[in-house]
Amino acid sequence: MGYQGKSLKTMNKFASLIVVPILLLGCKENSALSDVELSDPKLISPEITITKTLNNRGREQTELVVFLNDKNNNSIDLLKGGVTLNNEKLGIQTEWGGAPYYTLNNLELYANTKYNFVVSLANDNSYNCNVLSPGDLINSFNVPEYHNMNNDLSVSWGNLTSNASTRYALEISNDNTLSKEINLSQSVIKNGGYIISSRLLKQLSEGQRGDFIITLKASTKGKVDHRFDGGTIKIIQLINRQVTLDLGEVDAAIFTNEDTEEYQHKVAPKTPKLVPEFGWLKFVLTGAGGLLFGFLLFSFIQKRKNKKQ
User: Fold this and answer.
1) Distance CA 133, CA 107 (A)
2) Number of domains in the chain
3) In a domain, 233, yes or no
């Protein structure tokens, strides 16, 4: 596969990381309770997610999605009431499947910060859901671009403080499918790195060269008001890195076999030795010099003959 083909395949994989969540959101519909003034929190199950993603090119994106689900997992747009985040009112948007959700543009995720959501119902009663971000956010994740699957693969990250509310994991995916999730213990997180065994790499790749996405994921859980019918609130941090796994073989030779053989047996031309240059000798040996020398020699002989006579 050429460079353009490989680049297109890579772009498709990264695009799928965006498309798949959208398709998942599309499973919801607009709830019939959107047409009713709600005052009973037991009819609502909040699903609040802050997601910060850092892709392979270093582009960072933070998104907020707040679903107020009914018992059928369909989303409610409160006829009277609303949702705020740290006293800022959230707007309403609709995803592809028609389900409404609350959101806020240009949200920033900061370390050790409390994100407090307040859901207000038709009777003006309010219910809180909050989550505290980790003391250290994921800012770096080091994965080689190419790796020989016959060797263990080492990955590393910056300083991270593990706590009971945050769970870390490595996700390895290929062909848009999650192949393996590796939960990371608190001690591993503090060590700042992890070694993925060559055995696992061969198993996931089935011994074939291919591109994989390795994601470092942190999931932080918060608290939902107990008066709701359950629900979740969490902060998700993702850093995606692509690695090409191969068997350590050279993809393409720099030379063909014939070129290589010719190159190996080619002898460099000898540099001529420098010798002193004698201008008069060159002149004698040239045609003009030879004629002049012959004429002078002939004249000398004739003069000798004349003297003898």
Assistant:
1) 14
2) 1
3) yes
